[in-house]
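Collaborator request, handled under Task 6.
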Amino acid sequence: MNTIRKVSMLPLAALTATVTHTVALADDGTATPEEVITKVWGAAKFLQTKGVSGIAALNNADGPWVWKDSYVFAFDCRLDRMVAHPMRPDLVGRPILQITDNNGKYLFKALCEAAENKHGGWVDYMWTKPGAGKVSRKISYAATADLAFSTGIQIAAGVYDDALTVEALDKMTAKMADPGNYTP
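Structure tokens returned to the collaborator:
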């Protein structure tokens, strides 16, 4: 039985419009959580439009899904495989659910669980930051994209940050996806 919950794209479109202004304010070379959400939901919408043929664009290290110190990657939890990774093409097509970080955390199992949430979710783990040459704390946001003739592919991207918490980012994401959650 397929247990992957699909993300509704309607609130995603509203969030993208809301976040665009915020993204324009941050430009120090470090990706922000808002940018990550915008890129993940943008990639999900892109794949809905392009279908499986759009996956090649996600694998392009010089494409629009790589920015600042972050990038979008795609994986299929049901089939246990990496679908697209612009920075680690050696992972594409390989099993993912047994991949652990330096602390032994099964990060893709956690990302798959996070992607099942209505508005997606955040997972923290240790990962090598592009260009840094060392392992850093990364917090990635994952959501599920609907594709024609497919049960869904999970899309994710992350930020490298030692201070952000998964709980705070999940609350921010829920508020951004539902403007009714904002209080004056």
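The cover message to the collaborator said: "The chain has five helices and seven strands. Helices lie at 9-25, 33-50, 55-58, 107-115, 166-177. Please let us know whether this matches your experimental observations."
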